[in-house]
Amino acid sequence: MIKTLVTGATGFLGKHLVPRLEALGHEIYVCNTKTANLKDLPNLITHYEGVKFNYIFHLAAVTKAGDYCLRHPGNQWIENQIINTNILTYWVDHQPSAKMICMGTSCSYAPDIPMKEENYLLGQPEPSLYTYAMTKRMLLLGLQSIEKEFGLKWLYFIPSTLYGPGFELDDNHFIFDFIRNCYNAKNKGEKFTVWGDGEQRRELIHVGDAVAAILRLLEQECEIFNLGSGQDHTINTFAKMVCECYNYDNSLIEHDMTKYVGVREKKIDVAKVSELIGDSPLINVDLQTGLVEAVAYYTEALGS
Fold first, then answer.
1. Phi and psi dihedrals of 249, rounded to 5?
2. Domain-wise residue ranges, the chain
3. What is this structure's pTM?
4. Does position 190 have pLDDT exceeding 70, yes or no?
5. Nearest of 264, 257, 288 to residue 194 by alpha carbon
6. 2-159 maps to which CATH number?
7. Distance CA 185, CA 157 (A)
8. What does the alpha-carbon distance between residue 91 and residue 87 come to, in Å, rounded to a whole number?
9. Is beta strand 161-163 parallel, antiparallel or unpaired with respect to 201-206?
10. Which residues are within 8 A (CB) of 61 and not within 5 positions of it... i.e. 6 or more apart?
């Protein structure tokens, strides 16, 4: 039996990854704030005493979308450094035979440098995202340093924004905000407002496609991989596509020019992973299909 520890298993990615791992024969052990809290290293050690893991998937992170990173840099630094240091310490001291799989963030890329894996640690991230971005860079440096000294094996994945069904109903990543806001505009007469002029560009990858790619690359060792669709669109385009899902008039969308908008463009380079997986396509769920699926999940979850 393959024994696998998953931190952040109840998060959006974790809820999709865990069933796929179980289908492949993994026995899943969950680590969260109630079970082997990552902030409590002694508890983490004793909770799984006697268990030898084949894999550790470290998905847990303290962050939110929108302007959270701008308003809580100190808390993000402290919380993420604690949980990242504890899981890496646990790995080195108690689970050195396990392969560590960690999630990075496209926020760590400098916006003025091509978003290729070899550039992940170069340049300066967007100032408003700087603290969270640097904790993820530090996580990668931790993996690389541990490999160099102790020879342990790892993988590091950098996804573009994940979307699809199963998200928390109050998740405020922009695409889920749009799904929620358009629903409220359609059914409650509220305003559907886009932050800024809507011409900033973003990229999405369906969570199912991201999970499939991670699993196809699981036998690689000590590598960094971008995971994205390879296509970006304006925020306005995404908003209009969500309106189509609801049959809502997109001409009613308003723009708030006072709001935070982040970087103007964000699209990661997926040439490395695309070449490695060969004939197996990276993207199997087209954007419109994925949005219809996510909207259907949201309306069903509300009982509508």
1. -70, 110
2. 2-159, 167-203+232-266+286-301
3. 0.94
4. yes
5. 257
6. 3.40.50.720
7. 36
8. 6
9. parallel
10. 8, 80, 83, 103, 132, 136
Would you place residue 66 in the very low, low, confident or very high pLDDT band (cuts 50, 70, 90)?
A: low
Same fold across 2-159 and 167-203+232-266+286-301:
no
pLDDT at residue number 208: 96
Please indicate whether residue 9 or residue 33 has the higher confidence score (pLDDT). 9
Question: Is the pLDDT confidence value at 85 over 70?
Answer: yes
DSSP string, 251-290: GG-EEETTS----SB-----HHHHHHHTTS-S--S-HHHH
Q: Please tell me the distance from the alpha carbon of residue 37 to that of residue 82, in angstroms, as a whole number.
A: 11
Q: Which CATH number fits domain 167-203+232-266+286-301: 3.90.25.10, 3.10.320.10, 3.40.50.10420, 1.20.1250.20?
A: 3.90.25.10
Question: Measured between alpha carbons, how far is 81 from 92 in angstroms, rounded to an integer?
Answer: 16
Lowest mean pLDDT among 62-76, 220-234, 282-296: 62-76
